[in-house]
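Notebook B, p. 112. Complex prediction, attempt 2.
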Amino acid sequence: MSLVRIQKKDFSVSEEVEMVKASSMSIGGVVVFLGTARDVSKGEDIIELEFESYPEMAEKKLNDIRERAIKNFNIIEMALIHRIGKIAIGENIVLIIAAARHRNDAFMACEWAISELKRITPIWKKETTKKGDVWVEERP
Amino acid sequence: MSLVRIQKKDFSVSEEVEMVKASSMSIGGVVVFLGTARDVSKGEDIIELEFESYPEMAEKKLNDIRERAIKNFNIIEMALIHRIGKIAIGENIVLIIAAARHRNDAFMACEWAISELKRITPIWKKETTKKGDVWVEERP
Amino acid sequence: MITIKFFAMLKNKVGRDEAAISIPGQITLMEFKDILKKEFPCISGFIDKSVLISVNQEFAASGTIIKDGDEVALLPPFSGG
Amino acid sequence: MITIKFFAMLKNKVGRDEAAISIPGQITLMEFKDILKKEFPCISGFIDKSVLISVNQEFAASGTIIKDGDEVALLPPFSGG
């Protein structure tokens, strides 16, 4: 299974971490970012989220982030997974795993990767509130 | 099950993350640090690790870190688990989970918590190499 | 023919997720934007303002050349993550 | 009686993980350290140098009062995490 995926179904954090860990016995620190659907956004009660992507380009961009993270940070491996489709409150949205010899490198790469994902990956979020559906139009 | 534990057996990252997530529907970002046993330490091949703790005091200190993290960072919940006993290369050693509304707070709290754990928690590591067993004597 | 892809609120406004138009030879993205605004007037404000454009799944600039067979996508501000 | 706990390399050097000694009334940790160094000469160098001491599972300073029933632990530099 690929370390970079856009998919409808949920992922298992443990399984993905094990897949990353399997890449090397020299990993000493793994940092995971897990984005989840929260009940309130900008003061508005959220009922449900829906994500849409430009699939081919989104996977291309996630692959690009992984390659640059491995090249520019002192990490051994990285996984990036983003879900699309309807997502209920509390559910998982996005998972980024950075594995390094030393923890500081893993923290830096993981933090960079999630902000880079938000910046360059063609994925859009629709929020369903009591007032209706709104495509979120914000550039982070 | 407690969010702060010293234990011999391995933990499931997914199960611990779900336990933290269950504390609130307002969680939007979860940052996990997972420390694992790597094959080389300071140029020396490691065969096996063994951790010992001062159990009552170690749990007290981990609880103290959790409480200060929740008080001083804008996070909703934190879990800290450290294994003791013999640990093979590639196995999990320590897990810290920080859950917040916003990801920056979770990153900051998680990074602070692992360095604070290393600073104040009475846990000791013995490295088994080809040259024999050595208690690691370093203050991070 | 050029394939044009619409996403998120642009898809809602245009009422479909894909369209095809033909262009006279090779033109720049700047010129292509004018054609898009005439073909899809309901989103011309977005095209001027907040929309990024990709050509064959790579971000494109005003001078990028558009030619027959290309896939052009109109990308509203991203909100993944 | 005071319970004394040894961990990691100190446990190896002393050859056991616990000892009990009695003290004359209440004394400071500084005074107690001198007793420890006499009782356990093989680790007196460590006690002077790199060892932290906890009293009843809290970090203690030179002026901390030690009294009957206390649990004193000798803590080599930590290496958890």
